[in-house]
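step 3/5: co-fold with PXL
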Amino acid sequence: MKRIVTIQDISCLGKCSLTVALPIISATGVEAAIIPTAVLSTHTMFKNFTCKDLDDQILPIAKHWKDEGIEFDAFYTGYLASAQQIEKVITLIDSLKKDGNLVIIDPAMADNGKLYPAFDAEFPKEMAKLCSKADIVLPNITEACLLTDTPYREKYDKAFAEEVVEKLAAQGAKTVVLTGAEFDGKYGVLVYSSEKKEYWYYAQEKIDAAFHGTGDIFSSTFTGLLVRGKTLEASVEIAADYTAECIRITKNTPDANWYGVDFERAVPYLISRI
Ligand code: PXL
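step 4/5: write tokens
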């Protein structure tokens, strides 16, 4: 069986990061090893939250795995708790990665033009270093702008999206998968391969609803499917469709929680697409 290590926080309640990565990667039929980077009571969109940084565990866990001869097909990172942690994650990847392993980076740090509350303006610079090592980087437009030092635009056209994506690719990432790519009356996922210098756009129906954690759901599904052996295009399509299905189900549930989507109820749909 293929094996991924995913490196991100545990938000104990909130349906994001590891609490969605684990069940979703398992549902794709791939083993998910984890490195929890921090334990938070909830994600940081709640008014208050506790946070215990697990920074000092990252390299000892990596060393133990290396001593045991454990190998991974892919390294997949999400929300990281500090700039210092990013440095350790780079060291970990350098130490454990073998030729042919995939490095998939979701620079989960911002949305709607704003950094998440726990980060300062220096954080995107460190995250950009990690993204430069990626085979595939999965930003939204806010993150892509922050990573490339480009002023954010709420409304933009295809030329702007392509400018930002190409700047990000020029920093080192081989493939950029821009999520929530909305321009010229379309909504979907914009994929750019820097090796082939080619674009591909997967258009979706825009659902009039926004929930936390959907980026994590997309990235976890995409990663699981790609590592399982689906093509890049099929992984994008199925991940985008599953994320949309999660949003649709949640939107149609009158007593749904505000803090995340009911991704659990759409797992049968995901499996039907594998
Ligand atoms: O969904 C991304 C995410 C992950 N982890 C934590 C977060 C967020 C987004 O707000 O706060 C702790």
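step 5/5: annotate
The chain has a mean pLDDT of 97.
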